[in-house]
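Review session, final week

We close the course with one last complete record, chosen because it touches almost every idea we covered. It is Endonuclease MutS2, a protein from Pedobacter flavus with 791 residues. Go through it on your own first, then we will talk.
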Amino acid sequence: MLYPNNCEERVGFSEIRQLLLKHCLSPMGQEMVGKMQVMSRFDQIDKFLRQTHEFKTILLDNEPLQINVFFDIKRLTEKIRVEGSYLTEEEVFQIYISLQTVFSVLRFFAERKDVYPALEALFENLPIEQGILRSIESVIDLKGKIKPNASQRLQAITTEIAKGEQEVRKRMDSIYRTAVSKNYVADGSLTMRDGRMCIPILSDHKRKIKGFIHDESASGQTVYLEPEEVFNLNNQLRDLEFDRRREIIQILTRLTDELRPYNAQLVAYHGFLTKLDFVRAKALFAISINASLPILKNEPKLKLENARHPLLMLSFKEENRTVVPLNAHIDQSLRILVVSGPNAGGKSVCMKTIGLLQMMAQSGLLIPADGHTEIGVFDKIFADIGDDQSIESDLSTYSAHLNKMRYFISNATAKTLVLIDEFGTGTDPQFGGPIAEAVLETLNNKKVRGVITTHYSNLKLFAGNNEGLENASMLFDNSKMKPLYILDIGKPGSSYAFEIAQNIGLQNDVIELAKKKTGTKQNSLDKMLVELEKEKKEVHQAKINLANLQNKVKNLVAENEKHKEFLEENKKKLLKEAKLEAQSIIKNANKLVENTISQIKKKQADKEITKALRDNLNRSLEENKIKEEPKKKVIIEENDDEILAGDWVKLLSNDAVGQVITINKNSLVVALGDLRTVVKRNSVKKVSHKQVKKLAQGNAFAGGMTDLATNFKAELDLRGMRTEAALAEVEKYLDKAIMLGFPSLKIIHGRGDGILRKMIREYLRKYSEVKRIEDEHADRGGDGISYVYLA
């Protein structure tokens, strides 16, 4: 239930109706838009919302659901109902086109059973009578005209007419040529007059050809004559045309009689098409305002997240502006929002947005808000917005407001949403404030939900001291003296009356005089609100800075943990390799000792032989001993050239050498083997590619470059891998190949659809070190293998 009668117009719902009408295909759909009401039954609202949401999904997914043309077939069913009546060719064709749309839609949903359950409810138990189409197709062609063979008699008449017209044409051509040869004919050719074919004859020669004059030119110099020879033939044709018309009427009458038993089904199809047009219009409108399906709750509450006023959105869209989103909630504990703030700060828009979106949702329309938005169900929506003074009723503005307040108090319940703009205005503030406070207290005691806007300080104070009420304010940038249009729940807002007056240039002495007249308490309260707003902005900015710092620390900790893991992994790997090598040496030594002892026993401890065996044992042990040769120190030549991505650099802290992956201002991401690290630009020096190759040969790289060179195979098999994983492997192997100075790299990617090959080659071409890329020989894999030659 809405109150007053112009509630829709005041909130802006009437304009939503007008926009919906533009998306309808038929007058029936427009009629449904006109009848659309704000509902209060949860199941009905849920059904209509889901239908709109599903149709929106179909449109956005470009599903092949064709709904282009249909007609008001209910009007035609009323004509069919009358015995002896018949439908015209055009009317039959309208039914045919409409039924084609119906059956096309039914086929669409049959092929997608249970995918769109809410829309399927539209045609639940709807009978499918394909016989109607077959009856129409036997009589009407695809252009909506009666088929020449719709009956045997019609076919015979049509054949006779064709022969008669041919005979008339033949005779007329003969007479016309004769008249032309005798110069009887005026300029022009054979023409039709009153449905009869005539020859344009000069009036001087009209008596030289027997016939009937049907017309003459404006000047009287030309007459249009039907020759006597074809007069009887034309009469016969006219009779045949009458026979044809009578036969068509009989055919249409028989067809109408065939359709009469299906009258109820045709009415059902009409209803289905009407609902479909209505839901389609709602879905198209939802797309135009970027609306989505809210979470529906069966209780009087709402929680708007990033909600936008739809009419404001469409208006701003034309001006390339954006709407500031609204976040607000009303529930059992926070029942009434008391919104304050400066003039033109967005208080009324905030309240109207809440009211309009609630009415839209309860009418089955999707709303422009985030998907987490919750919309409840209210039994009644009352609004006191704007000036309703009436000369006829002898009501002033304030009297009209009081009349509404009286109605609100008498009829509002805990399931009522009340919207009051500029609460208490229209009379002396000394009395208007207390009356407004009394009304607010009464509404709050009745557990009413609502949003009110006000400038009255006593209402702000009352809201702050009473449960169920909550102050809210529209934020204002007091440094720029501009409203921010952001709702801040939890504190009242200043009207910024003096600040705005000063900003627009009102004289300072007038402002100071006004401050003196306002009173000390009021001035200090308003000043306190302004100061509170400043402090809140500072706290908010401090929170943002703290959050940024926390994120930075979190990222650093994560990076540190990753490095720690990498070092632990390498440590375990090195220990494992060392243990395996030690075990191998011990095993070989044990075998040698055992073998020596065995031979000594076998030779019965002969001194010379024993000495020789001992010398042999010592030589073998000396040969298997791990010798550490002094490493040649490779001198790294540094230069101060500009560092670019792909260059090799030396870390000044530990002389490690790596390749620059990316550059970000003064920071570089450097690859040290499989390890990635971030360093400052001034903590590295650039080295040449020749130096990198020397380092590789001289074992100057940390992490065992000799082992890396020994184990590295310049062949990479990427078959069966996804593109991202394959490119990561290519990057890793290419870095190693360049680092170790390999001249070429063989990449096996397979043929397939050629997508992986194309992506890999495009990626490789970004490297300046890649000289060229070639296919393998056709006999050994062809374009399924790429050879990469490095500079």
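Two points worth writing down before the exam:
The chain has six domains: 11-148+255-288, 162-234, 295-496, 538-624, 638-706, 712-790.
Residues 11-148+255-288 form a domain with the MutS, DNA mismatch repair protein; Chain A, domain 3 fold (CATH 1.10.1420.10).
Good luck, everyone.
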